């Protein structure tokens, strides 16, 4: 195999969603209009790009998360092992959307002839394309760096992520849930960190209020580990929810895009929902609000959110209800169906 490789090693679903415009733009510059993506399994990129027109293959970067045993690409020999794995694909070019020198070294050892990256530190030693960012750019936000790097190569993009579920995913969601009454509200109940979690009781209070006010069908969207949250919500009088846990990424996106509103914690699902274009309300009490989506309304405590400082409880149920109710109006396109 030849072609273009993009290394995007940040582990979350949201991290990959942020880079969708950059991946698509890089693909357009490739001879076959596609890229191979090297990333970590937690990104669920294989599901995210199932049916993609611009990502032809996903390769896994086998690196441990904090507290996990070392993996194939960790440790002093990890770069050599990664190089051996990449060499078999005979890539013509690599874009490294990260500051680490490790991935540039692996690409060099893999004999990838055209190596492009941020170059903000020692990484530039292993790049042979000298269009790199200033060293001071290292601490700029991730997406700013990716957008700037593409600009240095004459690639201008709108960095707003956009994601369209596949027709198959849309059909499966319609078959499973299409008979349920409108309006539809999606709850993004999961969280990767405790300081990003609004809490089951607050989601339950919100569900009960909105069902009483609008008769909405409320979906709890998340992973299998959120079952306890769903049961806690259902235990509150009037807080009936439809469990939509453990869906493949494409179907979760299709369900979110079919909703009239999605509200949730700062997670990959929130990013994915916003990227589909659906009206989205994000709860930011332990992390700074996202700014790249025009259809995302953000709620945060007075004075603003600070990363890892848990102030989620300061976002009141009434404030969230007030943000959602106008979006569930019957004259809106989804709600009227």
Brief summary of the model shown:
The chain has helices at residues 13-18, 20-29, 45-48, 78-87, 101-109, 142-152, 167-177, 200-214, 227-234, 249-258, 268-276, 317-324; strands spanning 4-7, 35-39, 55-60, 93-96, 114-117, 184-188, 217-222, 242-245, 261-265, 280-283, 296-299.
Number of helices: 12
Number of strands: 11
Give the biggest sheet: 6 strands, parallel
Structural class by sheet pairing and helices: alpha/beta
How far apart the termini lie comes to 47 Å
Radius of gyration: 21 Å
Percentage of residues assigned to helices = 25-40%
How would you sum up this structure, described in words?
This protein is an alpha/beta fold and 337 residues long. It has 2 domains: 4-152, Glycogen Phosphorylase B (Rossmann fold, 3-Layer(aba) Sandwich); 167-328, 3-Layer(aba) Sandwich (Rossmann fold). 33% of the residues lie in helices and 15% in strands. It has 12 helices and 11 strands. The strands form 2 sheets. Strands 8-7-6-9-10-11 form a 6-stranded parallel sheet, with helices on both faces. β9, α11 (268-276) and β10 form a beta-alpha-beta unit. The longest helix is centred in the middle third of the chain and has 15 residues, at 200-214. The protein is elongated. The N and C termini lie far apart (47 Å). The model has no long low-confidence stretch (mean pLDDT 95).
